[in-house]
Amino acid sequence: FEQLYNQLKTMRPEEGIEIGMKAFELYEGGILPGTSIDWIECMNNGYRTAFIDICKTLASFLVEKQRWDDVIYVCRKAYEIAPEVEEFTLYLMQALVNGEYHGQAIEHYETYCTMLWNRLSRTPSEAVYQVYVLATHAIQENEESMELLVQQIIQPQKLKKAFQCSLSVFQNMVQLELRN
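The structure assignment produced for this chain is given below.
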């Protein structure tokens, strides 16, 4: 884990993603959780800090390469370990918006805001808020598009000319009409 972490510090996105994913997958949390021995706590804090750095670097590489599903995977696990690290929320929300999971981005924003206020008595940064605004606008646009589509289906405009289609489409339309 430490060796991969040290290698990742000097890499560019092309080769860094593979090394970063290996290090990311190796981390499973602290050693002997719940133990209050000083040297174990110190080691756990060091590994946790390294994991956070790995996740930040890996997430930025993945965003640069627009690998949205991987960003979501990495940032969700990183958020479980360190929810106070804003980069994980920012990258996660960006990936969710780019993957057209707008509702999940909004839900995560609300969860993050609650956690941030309860733990640290503060509000999210402007960058996180702007991604939230993008997600809400995208949902509104989708709803408006759906309403327009439904109106067109329910109240189709009368065509003033003949409808042209291929023979196979015409046969499918006839079969569909015969079912009714």
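Interim note for the steering committee: The helical segments are 2-8, 13-26, 38-64, 68-81, 86-98, 102-120, 126-154, 167-179. The two ends are 64 Å apart (CA to CA).
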